[in-house]
Amino acid sequence: MAPLRFAIFGTGFWARFQLAAWRELAGVECVALYNRTRAKADALAREFGVPRVYDDPLALLDQEQLDFIDIITDVDTHSRFVQLAAQRNIPVICQKPMAATLAEAERMVAACRDAGVPFFIHENWRWQTPIRQLKRVLDAGTIGRPFRARIDMISGFAVFANQPFLKELEQFIITDMGSHTLDLARMLFGEATSLYCQTQRIHPDIKGEDVATIMLKIGDSTSVVCQMAYAGNYLERERFPETLIFIEGERGSIELAPDYWMRVTTADGTHAQRFPPPRYAWADPAYTLIHASIVPCNANLLGALRGDAPAETTGADNLKTVRLVFGAYESARTNQVVHFD
Ligand code: 89Y
Q: For the CA atoms of 156, 158, 163, 167, what is the dihedral angle to 10 degrees?
């Protein structure tokens, strides 16, 4: 089968890892890069042997024969590029967070649906090695019905050094990290019926919130608390980018503990096993866990692009995560519980 030909839009910090992760998979070929600042795209193209570079997205779309586009630009441009893909009938993958507002995300999903264009979100957190193992145990029913969980991403890692734009976001940690933790909550436990959220800003030199506490009610009776912070360097153990999870079920508990340990406790005792991610030479050691998760995330999306199996993170599915993200901001602003249909 001929490889699927794709273009990457946006060649900032994240793109080189996404491109390297695509190269781990057979049957796919990056044929062009677009970036507003051409020199950055030129450098990445040279490093990875990508044949063509553009600083005009329309010129790229006019000249390239593409099977899909992978958008890795800042969130402000996601909508424009997804709409362009829909108009040109090109399947499209867009980096999380999908959009800067809920209305914009709804329009993106509608445009692709109306045009019959496959639309996926690159949401990689759920593909992290220890998290997939935790899901496996949860789904096997070992701990019975889960009734409460904690999903924590609390870190003093210098996220602003590699991604300075995060400092400028009026809505920071819930869009950046809540997109991931709320997606995990949905993947593990199902859809939320309500949420309540409080936020804080601890860094004096950033625009948005760097602390968020979100309590979700899932279905009728499962409580899930997502705690997030990039508030400073005050932790005894820095575990970026590990998500620490604790789930209580009617017959046991599962803990995702530091250093990739999973502990499953039932009446029979505790079973502990370590699930580190695979190590890729191209991954930044500070981001090993996330960078490794890009490979299975891309593989899942590629399977859908080829028509082999449905993708987990379609635009329509991710819209439910986006609703939680902006529901959390509304709850924090009004200090009220937000209900979902
Ligand atoms: O942008 C974020 C992401 O998606 O993963 C970690 C990160 O780089 C900083 O929070």
A: 70
The atom number, within ligand 1, closest to the CA of 124 reads: 4
Task: State pLDDT tens for residues 187-203.
Answer: 999 999 999 999 999 99
Taking CA atoms only, the protein residue closest to ligand 1 atom 8 is 159
Please return the burial class of 281, using the count of CB atoms within 10 Å of its CB with bins 0-12, 13-18 and 19+: exposed
Q: Whose CA is nearest to atom 4 of ligand 1?
A: 176
pLDDT at 156 (0 to 100): 96
Ligand 1 nearest atom to the CA of residue 173, by list position: 10
Preceding peptide of 241 cis, ω within 30°: yes
Tell which one of 165, 290, 325 to mutate to probe ligand 1, the residue whose CB is within 8 A of the most ligand atoms: 290
List residues near ligand 1 (CB under 6 A). Answer: 159, 163, 176-177, 241, 290
Residue-wise pLDDT for 4-53, tens only, equals: 999 999 999 999 999 999 999 999 999 999 999 999 999 999 999 999 99
- Take atom 9 of ligand 1 and give the residue whose Cα is closest: 159
Rounded CA gap, 151 and 142, in Å?
Answer: 19
Residue 136 backbone phi and psi in degrees, to 5: -60, -45
- Cα separation of 9 and 55, whole Å? 10
Q: What is the pLDDT of residue 124?
A: 98
Size of the chain in residues: 341
Q: Measured from the CA of 179, which atom of ligand 1 is nearest?
A: 4
Residues of the chain with pLDDT under 70: none
CA 59 to chain centre: 29
Cα 17–183–311 angle (5° rounding)?
65
Listed residue (81, 72, 76, 67) closest to 112, CA to CA: 81
